[in-house]
Amino acid sequence: MKIGIDFGSTYSVVSKFNPTTDNVEAITFAEGEPASIPSVVSISKKGQVTSGKGAKDQAGKKTVRIFEGFKILLTETNREMLLKRGYDDTFTPREITRCYLESTLKGVLTREGGDSFENVVICVPEIWGGGENLTALDGRMILRTILQKEIGIPVKHVQVVTEPEAASAFFAYNYEKETGKKFNGHLLLIDYGGGTLDITLTEVFSNGMGRMEIGYREGGGAGENHPDSAGNGSIGSAGIAYMQAVVTRALRDAGILAEDEQPDYTAPDFIAAVRDLESQLKSVERIHDIEDTFAPYGSYREMKGILDDDLGEDNFFASLEYDGEEVSVTFQQLFRCYQETIESVLENQIREINRKVEAHIGDDPCKPEAGVRDDFKIALVGGFGSFFLVKQQLADIYHLDPNPAIDLRTKNITADKREQAISLGAALISAGKIVLQRTARYSIGLCTKDKDGKVNGLYYGIKYHDTIEPGKPYFLLRPGATEDVPEQRVTWASLYGNVESFVIEFSDRMDHGGVMDVKPEILKRLKKLPVEGFWNCGFSLDESDVVSFHVVPRPIPGFSNEHKGIVIQLDSYSRMFDLSAIREVSI
Question: Which CATH code for domain 2-180?
Answer without folding.
Answer: 3.30.420.40
